[in-house]
Amino acid sequence: MNKPKMATEKGNSRVMMLLGQLERMNGESMLRDVEMARQVTTKILHRQTCRFELFGVMPNSRDVQTTLTILSILTELLTVGRGRRVGVFVSKGGTGVLFQILVNASKEFPPSEELMLQLHSLLAKVGPKDRKFGMKARLSGALNVTINLMKRNLLNTKLLLPCLQVLRVYATSSVNAISLGKNGVVELMFKVIAPYSKKNTSLLKVALDALGALLKSKTNARRAVDGNFVPVLLNLYLDWHRNDARHRYMLIRKGLLVCLKNITNIKVGRKAFFEANGMRILYNSSTECLPVRTLDPLVNTSSLIMRKCFPKNRLPLPTIKSAFHFQLPHVPADGPVAQLYSQLPGVDDVVDESDDNEEPEADSDTENDEDEKDNCSLNDDIETDINKLHPKRSIGRSFEELKFYKKFFSELFEDFQVSSFTSRSEVGSERVKQEGSPVNNTRHIQSPLLLGGIPTRRVGGGGSNWGSDCGSEGTEDESGEGAVLEVPDTAQLLPLHDPDLYVEMVKETFSVPRYAEVAYPDYFGHVAPTSKEPLLERLYGVQRSKIFQDIERLIHPNDILDKVVYDLDIPSCPVVEDSGESLKFNSQFESGNLRKAVQVRKYEYDLVLNADINSNHYHQWFYFEVSGMRVGTTYRFNIINCEKSNSQFNYGMQVLMYSVQEAISGRPCWVRAGTDICYYKNHFARSSIAAGGQKGKSYYTLTFSITFSHKDDVCYFAYHYPYTYSSLKMHLSKLEDLRTPRIYLRQDVLCETLSGNSCPLLTITAMPESNSNDHICQFRNRPLIFLSARVHPGETNASWVMKGTLEFLMGSSPLAASLREAYIFKIVPMLNPDGVVNGNHRCSLSGEDLNRQWLNPNPELHPTIYHTKSLLQYLAYIQRAPLVFCDYHGHSRKKNVFMYGCSVKETVWQTNISASSSDLQEDLGYRTLPKILSQIAPAFSMGSSSFVVERSKESTARVVVWREIGVQRSYTMESTLCGCDQGKYKGLQIGTRELEEMGAQFCVALLRLKRLTGLRNHQNLLDLECDIIGTQHVPIALFHVGSSLTTYVMEEDEPSFLEAIDYSAESNDEDGEPENELCCEVQENFDLLSDSETTTGTS
Ligand SMILES: [Zn+2]
After folding, report:
1. Do 659 and 713 contact (CB within 8 A), yes or no?
2. Which tops the pLDDT comparison, 705 or 414?
3. Residues in contact with 109: Cβ distance below 8 Å, sequence separation at least 6, in sequence order
4. Which is higher by pLDDT, 1032 or 975?
5. How far, in Å, is the centroid of ligand 1 from the Cα of 248?
6. Are 302 and 312 in contact (CB under 8 A)?
7. Ligand 1 center to residue 717 CA distance, Å?
8. C-alpha distances in angstroms, 89 versus 20, 43, 67, 78, 127?
């Protein structure tokens, strides 16, 4: 025991003694009070009185002077001691006693001013330390005492200040805020803060804080609008802005902005702000504040308000439905396409609807009914039906239906007569001779790069005058016609690339817009650059400056060009005349999807992406061509109809750029490019009907700046490394060249897609060692590995990973040979060719996400899924279900590569649903493969992996293959679009080399999976794995419920960013959330009434 502690304890006991006296003095009158107050306070007092009776030597006096004396000693005691004494005071029910004295004293007329002053000063000290302060005040009836006191003493600064300080605490409770508003406190506060005056600035500061808190309530905000206080606030802000040259009153200025910010959370508030010229006032004042870094809070809050109040607008499009329509074989009446095309014209018109249809705010007494909605919604997405969690083993289809698929598994039945043995290998080597023909060392390329012999009719367009110039013909020195570019042979750099073959493949690819051009990057090919590409560091204030430029458009509309330079919806597209003043855009090639380009300033363009075909949204992927640029000039590009609420573009990801000039100079590379990149909510929106019945949704802007370094260049920009369907076909054809006599490679066409593209199916394994019975038997009995990729067209990284897998499998390394001898690989490398061809991001031509159709795929509408699932059903039927199923995807919100798997146990842990221990008998084999990957693949992260079965994923490949086909190791492998934050590649953006490496490492991991066991018997293999896992790095913890072995994947995977991406009413830049306050209060009430103590100062 040391001295200071003694002192504190002594102080504490004095505090308690004084408290005891106060209680006694008010004991009698208390009984006459409001029923509710009495109940609650009695509980506190009763409990305390017993202890305080020890100190009960003081006379039971009701003399004001005695009370004052005690209060002043108390004040003194509570002022020293760093708040610990306040804590003791609160925990002993002191707040309640003070309120009681306050209420009692108010009944005297006139109440003693000094007593009121003392009480409020003390309450102002205690309030912030008492979590239940607001509620205690309300229940004791103290709110009105304070308000009436203020009303009577508006000019009495000395008394007003402590009252405001207490009010500021009252108002943090939303229930109190509403009640105070009803009693005219909002209007009262405006009397305190206006007109502008530098007298009593500390009072003003407190008053603004209190007002800001009051205005968080929408009812109060409405009151302020009705009272016409928005112009008052704006003018006050201007006054302070002008008269605070030395920035000494930042807090007052900020306080005014917070009031405006809260008022503009409601629609009428935004309207009033706009009409009061708020945009211009805040824009101009912020511009003046910008050079002073200490004024950043003002600029940021102003920016937030302006963004909110920027009038919502529809996109500059005739309709947000995709520019192209594809006629489906049949249109299900309840499907998305039927709904989309039955919408009335004008559906896209946007009104600011964010406040409409809103219930009037909760009144003071409804607080108890709010239950734990939040807790429920947290697990909404997780499967909670234990029966649905267990794999069901019935295939649900007859063998009659499935036997059709036998033809795709001829390896399981082939007997390898000598003839087939030799002829196969001969065919392989012949192909090498035929198709591996060397490409000319230099080639001459005409620009534009048009396909000959292909009809160039375009759906939705004029049909003539096709093929925008690529721009590289130059304007001065060449006549366009004879423009010739010399290109080095990319085939030397890229052994599996062949431009001529690519063009042949494009000719056989069917696109809805009937593309007749070839993008240079796909033609030349891409070589991964050798230099590292670190995540882009974000410069301070980038987003803010971009947003200010956006707001400037509204403030100075005459500076805006608004010149449409590219427009798919206009038949004569591209519309730009060659004046040299504008960039030229094009994306009428495979996987391209730019719909419109508008030049807004000399070097700034708004770009609008096309929706997925037969839909009106899913904008994220992009791929387009730019030419006609000036060297050394920085251009700003804004893709204005993005939809995700956040993006890795805010966390270091750059766009991809491909320069034809660079390619010609021997560097055919997609490179990470762009500066000043950010992603934020903009003022464009779609109506609630167009958004599918939800609230109208805002769009987001991806902005980036580029400085071009070559004259007469043609550059391409993409969301991620493009990988077209034609590239796949070329690649598969080149893979044939890698076949040796030892490799068994078969390529089948699984089915045709809706638009007539074929869906390839590959079988890769090793040829049997000989045609002896034993060898044939070993061959046929190899476990199957089933892989697929690219069901989501925008996730091109999945294709690059698949490319890595395929090349590894076809490789000459001993590992590859062992792998082929160990397994039979069945691979569907592109589940959604139509989506890829047409530049979709998410869907197929049916306007649906194919990875949500696995439960019940329709053979006509979802042929690739239907037939892939049938293959698996067939395998299940013949009892050859694959050992591993993995569907490759890309992930737009997270870093690294990781897996989603399926586990009953881990799902149960996440949900806390009751399950018997027999329900939880589960083999742990599902963890082995990701575990191995995390050890050998540098980009892979076990920590990001999850094995929870989410309800929203119940129709995905992973879950259906697990549940219906009974594949325990059924996975989705997600590769980041951005980069890594762990391992060897930490801090780097991901490139095709790393993605391909991942695909190869996946194969190596499969081999290790095999070697871990050394057994051919599946069941033993699983058991052994369990042992290994159980005894290795993850012992006991694996069985420990509640451990964080599995991460439940949250919506937001990055820490919230400094600058608010979103500016909606719910998003907060710095303040606490009023909604939570309400919940908190509910809990408080509950605590109080159930007589449980939350704070215990002693012990
Ligand atoms: Zn995906």
Report:
1. yes
2. 705
3. none
4. 975
5. 53
6. no
7. 21
8. 11, 16, 17, 8, 11
Q: How confident is the model at residue 380 (pLDDT cuts 50, 70, 90)?
A: low
When pLDDT is averaged across residues 458-482 and rounded to a whole number, the result is: 34
Rounded CA-CA distance 718/334 in Å is 34
List % helix, strand, coil for the chain (3-state, nearest 5).
Answer: 45, 15, 40
Tens-place pLDDT, residues 434-443: 333 333 334 4
Region label for 895, one of left (φ > 0), alpha (ψ between -120 and 50) or beta (otherwise): beta
Q: How many CB atoms are located within 10 Å of the residue 248 CB?
A: 10
Can you list the pairs that 1092-1099 forms with residues at least 24 positions away whose Cβ atoms lie under 8 Å? 1093/91, 1094/131, 1095/87, 1095/90, 1095/91, 1096/91, 1097/12, 1097/84, 1097/87, 1097/88, 1097/91, 1097/92, 1098/12, 1098/88, 1098/91
Distance from residue 573's CA to the centre of ligand 1 (Å): 32
Binning pLDDT at 50, 70 and 90, where does residue 341 land?
confident
Report the percent of the chain where pLDDT is more than 90.
60
Spell out the residues 6+ positions from residue 1090 whose beta carbon is closer than 8 angstroms to its own: none
Look up 974 and say whether it is catalytic.
Answer: yes
Ligand 1: distance of its center to the CA of 927 in Å?
A: 21
The residue annotated as part of the active site, out of 411, 821, 974, 1081, is 974
Q: What separation in Å is there between the alpha carbon of 1050 and the centre of ligand 1?
A: 16
Q: 330: exposed, middle or buried (C-beta count within 10 Å: 0-12, 13-18, 19+)?
A: exposed
- For 718, the token pair is 């993409």
In whole angstroms, what is the distance from residue 183 CA to residue 506 CA? 73
How far is the centre of ligand 1, averaged over its atoms, from the C-alpha of 976 (Å)? Answer: 11
pLDDT band at 1036 (very low <50, low <70, confident <90, very high): very low
AA identity, residue 319: T
Could you tell me the distance, in angstroms and rounded to a whole number, from the CA of residue 972 to the centre of ligand 1?
9
pLDDT band with cut points at 50, 70 and 90 for residue 695: low
Lowest mean pLDDT among 40-49, 711-720, 1085-1094: 1085-1094
Residue that has been written with the tokens 């649900």 in this structure: 396
C-alpha 382 to ligand 1 mean position (Å) = 19
d(CA 507, CA 757): 11
**Residues of 708-738 as b/e, b for ≥16 C-beta within 10 angstroms?**
bebebbbbbbbbbbbbbbbbbbbbbbbbbbb
pLDDT of 221 strictly over 90 = yes
CA of 620 to the centre of ligand 1 (A): 12
The predicted pLDDT at position 925 comes to 86
Higher pLDDT, 1023 or 690: 690
